[in-house]
Structure formats: structure tokens, C-alpha cells
Design a protein that fits this description.
The chain is mainly beta. The chain is built from 2 helices and 32 strands. The chain is elongated and about 105 Å long.
């Protein structure tokens, strides 16, 4: 007998009966199936004894599964990478199958799949006349890019899709969701019916599950709907297997599309405010915003990341506050940035922290401004100020007035040249000051 983490079969049937559909958000989820939890097990206390589940909850049951849609994305399968799916010139059906062990179904790409088969498709246009998925969910209104898993369900229920996720934090609350579309608009004998299962990756014991009920007929082409549920990882579980199983028989109907399989960490969103474009040589400030709802134990830890050329997120040394400042911007500073927030002990654990969406910082070759001033103003005349392109070489000059002598050029109080004619490469907007003084001997004899 399987031991379920949060509900027994009777409770599961009750939650299915209470299932609500919010078509305005295209979200389907069990009403009040989960309460908000946190990494300290404040919201949930679970006792597993003798194969019996004891489910206790706090009063924090006012948060629906939809709220986790803004949680931190830990995993997404959008099928776009198979068969060069993002290339508009690639075939409608991928020639590349899912990795071995990912499904019990047979890969088929010569035409739309038959019972017990699947394809990785861009659309069903030109395929079976009764199927009406014209584009995938990830790239709506674009039937030339992106793919989804097109399934013709077998007479014998099987596993459409499975995947293992590791390095999770036990006690964390996760959201498992899938975009599903019924291929049919007109009446059919069988609608698709799915079960989402979460298994302990070490023992294969089922932690929890969710049944979609019958997926209704499409009301329009590409009628994608999100189905999902929240769950909490039990103690000492750090790796899980996701499974999407078929409950209905094949035959007339039970044909569907699956796309954008996601696991999200149920944490408040992290926002980042940053300029879209910064001029070379200038300063950029990235500012984060995060409101802790009790998910993380305070004090909080922060870390900024930048994506490198290999598309790997790399932590930026010393970036341990809500604000990250980049001075004297160069071309190398252009790219994608993210902010991570968590409790101090989890900041280095990739799947246990809240992350902002990536933001792109563009670096532009703007004209830079050089301002030249005389100190004191009557000490002489200065030339060479103006607008210059980044990397341009320019010269500023200082001509002392009668009774004055040129001393040096300074920038921010620091001497940059003792020559009246100063040549340099422009890399930032700045102010240069030509300093003049009256020599003591001239002051006494001629300039009193």
C-alpha cells in the first residue's frame, strides 16, 4: 500500500470533487488543496505511521495554487530543444525522440501518432483533420517555432512522461503543473484523464499525487489549460521523480498535447529594478526587492548572478546585498543578471532560494561628456571639453592668465597630468579641472 504524504484516497477523492476551474487564468487546480508552508514546517505537520496519514494544517489556507505561478522556476520541459524546434524551417515533427526512459510510449515521426505513440510536434496542421492544436503553448500564435508532446493514448494506461529532479530542500513547498490541451473540439468517446505523481527518487514510494479528471473538449484551437497542485517535500527527501500517467483507455479520443511541465518553488517573487541601457564608462545600479512572508528564516542572504557565454549562471563575488553597483561600465558587463534570496544557510543551494526573473543590461556606445573648468576661474582659459565617443582620443589644454602659472589637471581631486596639454582616451563622462596659481615671487613684485 502506498503511503501518501498529505492525503489518503478518501481525501484525494474529496479534493477532486471540489476541483475548480478558472478559465480566465487557464488554471485548473483543486480548491484549497494545499496551505502555504515554509522551510521550518510551520504550516504543515505530517505524521506517517503504520501506512496511515495524519494531516494537520495551520490557518494559512487562503493561498491557492495559482499563487505559485510566480514562484521560482526550478524545472521546465517545453520540448522546444528537440529536433531544432525553435528553427522555423525545421520539420513539423521532430526526428529526435525524448531521452531513453522518459516515457513508456513509442516515438513516431512519420505522421501523427497512433495509439500508444507520441510525437514532438509544432502543430497538428496537415495531420489528422479532427485534431486542432495549431501551436504549442510556449510560443502561442506561432505554428513554426516551439514543440509540444503530441500523444495518442494507448488502450492500456501508461506513463506519458517522467523526470527526476535532485538537490531539493526537504520541507520546501513546490508546485507541479502541466499545460494540457485536448486535441478534439467535437464530441468523442473518451476525454484524456491524467494523474500527476511525485515519487521519492530513492525508494520510488509515492509522496503525493493529483488527478486532473477528464480534460474537457477544446472550445477553440490550441485550447491549452494549466493543471497543477502544491505539495511539501517530506523530511530527508531531496530528490523526486515526476510522472504523468494516462488513466483513460485509447480508441476514439484520448488524444492530447502536453507542454511546459514545471516545478516551481513556492516563494514570494523577487523583483529587480535596473536600467535597460547604460552608456560605456557610466555607472549602473541594480536594485532588488523581496518581501519575506515567513518562507525564509531571517536574516536573509542575497547574491547576484550573471550568465556567462556558456549560458551558466555564475555568482558575482562580493554581491551580497539587495543593491549591486557596476562602476565604469565596459562591454563585458553587458548581459543577463538575476538576484537570489534565501536564508543564510541556503544561499548556495540552487533549488532552495528565491530567484528573480533574468533582466538584460545593455551597454551602448553613447557619446560621453568631458567638462573642463579652470580653478580659480580667473587663473586661465581651458579648451577641449565636449561630447566624444567611447574610446576616442582627445586633448584638453590650459592657458594661464597673466600672473598665473598652470599647476596640474585633476579629476575628482586626483592629479591626472602636470602637462598643460593633456591627451587621453575617453572611457567615461567626467569633469577635468585645470588648476592655476600665482607664483609667490610674481605675487610680491608684479601682481599685488
Amino acid at each position: 500500500m502506498s503511503t501518501h504524504f498529505n492525503v489518503n484516497e478518501a481525501a484525494a477523492n474529496e479534493s477532486r470533487a471540489m476541483e475548480t476551474r478558472d478559465h480566465s487564468k487557464n488554471v485548473v487546480s483543486p480548491k484549497n488543496q494545499r496551505c502555504r508552508g515554509n522551510f521550518k514546517f510551520v504550516a504543515y505537520f505530517v505524521l506517517l505511521t503504520s501506512g496511515m496519514n495524519v494531516f494537520a494544517q495551520s490557518n494559512e489556507c487562503n493561498i491557492n495554487s495559482e499563487d505559485c505561478l510566480n514562484g521560482t522556476l526550478l524545472f521546465r520541459e517545453d520540448f522546444d530543444k528537440y529536433g531544432d524546434g525553435l528553427n522555423p524551417n525545421s520539420p513539423r515533427l521532430s526526428t529526435e525522440p525524448l531521452p531513453e526512459g522518459r516515457t513508456t510510449y513509442q516515438f513516431y515521426n512519420e505522421d501523427d501518432p497512433n495509439d500508444g505513440q507520441y510525437a514532438l510536434a509544432k502543430n497538428t496542421i496537415g495531420g489528422r483533420f479532427e485534431w486542432s492544436i495549431y501551436d504549442d503553448n510556449t510560443s502561442p500564435n506561432d505554428n513554426l517555432t516551439g514543440r509540444f508532446m503530441l500523444v495518442n493514448a494507448d488502450y492500456v494506461p501508461g506513463v506519458f512522461y517522467r523526470h527526476q529532479i535532485e538537490n531539493l530542500c526537504s520541507g520546501s513547498e513546490l508546485y507541479f503543473s502541466v499545460m494540457v490541451a485536448n486535441c478534439h473540439i467535437n464530441w468523442i468517446e473518451r476525454d484524456p484523464n491524467l494523474t500527476f505523481s511525485v515519487l521519492n527518487a530513492l525508494t520510488n514510494e509515492e509522496i503525493t499525487f493529483y488527478n486532473t479528471g477528464d480534460i474537457p473538449l477544446a472550445t477553440k484551437p490550441s485550447d491549452w489549460k494549466r493543471y497543477g497542485f502544491r505539495f511539501i517535500l517530506p523530511e530527508n527527501v531531496n530528490a523526486i521523480k515526476l510522472e504523468i500517467r494516462n488513466n483513460a483507455a485509447g480508441g476514439s479520443g484520448n488524444d492530447l498535447g502536453i507542454d511546459d511541465i514545471e516545478i516551481r518553488l513556492c516563494v514570494p517573487p523577487v523583483f529587480v529594478d535596473a536600467p535597460e541601457t547604460v552608456c560605456l564608462g557610466n555607472t549602473a545600479q541594480l536594485t532588488g526587492n523581496f518581501v519575506n512572508d515567513g518562507t525564509f528564516t531571517e536574516p536573509l542572504a542575497y547574491r547576484w548572478f550573471k550568465k556567462n557565454e556558456q549560458d551558466v549562471w555564475v555568482a558575482i563575488n562580493g554581491s551580497n546585498s539587495l543593491t549591486y553597483t557596476i562602476s565604469n561600465i565596459t562591454e563585458a558587463d553587458e548581459g543577463y543578471y538575476r538576484l537570489a534570496v534565501s536564508s543564510i544557510e541556503n544561499i548556495d543551494m540552487e533549488n532552495c532560494r528565491a530567484m528573480s526573473e533574468p533582466i538584460f543590461l545593455a551597454v551602448d556606445y553613447c557619446d560621453l561628456t568631458i567638462i573642463v573648468l579652470a580653478n580659480p576661474p580667473e587663473g586661465g582659459t581651458v579648451t577641449g571639453g565636449g561630447s566624444y565617443a567611447f574610446g576616442e582620443v582627445t586633448t584638453v589644454t590650459a592657458e594661464p592668465s597673466d600672473c598665473y602659472k598652470f599647476i596640474n589637471w585633476t579629476k575628482n581631486g586626483v592629479i591626472v597630468s602636470t602637462n598643460a596639454s593633456y591627451t587621453f582616451t575617453v572611457i567615461e563622462s567626467t569633469t577635468l579641472i585645470a588648476n592655476f596659481a600665482i607664483p609667490q615671487i610674481l605675487q610680491k613684485v608684479y601682481c599685488d
